[in-house]
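Appendix B, example 12.
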Amino acid sequence: MAAKARSDEKAGPRLPPDPPDALFHTLLEDPSRAAVLIREHLPDEVRQQLSDAPPRLLDGTYVDERLRTTRSDRLFEMRLRTGRPVFVYVLLEHKSSPDPRTPLQLLGYMVRIWERHAEGNATKLGALPPIVPLVFYHGVRPWRVPRSIFEMIERNEALDPLVRSMAYVLRDLGRIETERLSRDPAVRAVLAVLKYVQRSKEIDAEILAGVLRSLPRGLRLAVTVMRYIVATYQIDRTLLDEAARLAGTGNWETLMGTIAEEWIQEGRQEGRQEGEASALARLLERRFGVLPDAARERIAAASLEQLDAWFDAAIDAESPKKVFDA
């Protein structure tokens, strides 16, 4: 027993399960020590922008769970000389060799930091604090990993300005003339439908006719587009008929019949009579607006044969009354 005790003494104090992590966290718990570490190891041009206020340690870790054994992190909020905040994200890499994924993972951590900071607040999202990542590595092999996410992206002179600014391409459909949405008729039709879905009051028979004219001969995309129009736009059958007349399309009834049949099949999956009643009510509301309670009660009490007859009538009828008279 004595020999074992002496052996333990020679081995030194027992270390925590993750020594680098515990050591790093303990060091940075003290704001003054954290300030020394950060200020001594940041580039001069960054350090000169910092105010004399001490860093404030923020709660939370941003390292992926599967990387916790090889990384430790601490996030500090500091102040610039302008008074504006800046985040300094300190990451300790305690791997035996450099990780080529580090820039990509750092970008993910930065996104998480910004998301937690803003919490969906539009004002904060419009003025995110800059983040300065500070990585400490204590492995044996030299660190030859790219220092920026941009160095990981294959160079292309034409695309460099977009890539380097981390910008994205925005196409605001509402501010693009319909005819300029696409040269391809089918693509133009779909984009036009999306363009006007939030502007249903702006859509008229001529615009809708342009969509119908652009639909391909096959039924699949055409039915999908028409289902979307009927289900989403607050338009009546008169407008749809006028658009079909202006478009000169010959498959209007086929399209509407196919849509109605799809709703019937959906209804049958819910339970034959109840489902068909629900599907018929949906079809009528898409065409004529909100149904009165009396109409709903009549549909709920109808037989399957009567529901089938009303479905057929609902495709062409000019009003709910015409449907129920069938």
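The mean pLDDT is 81. The first strand starts at residue 56 and ends at 58.
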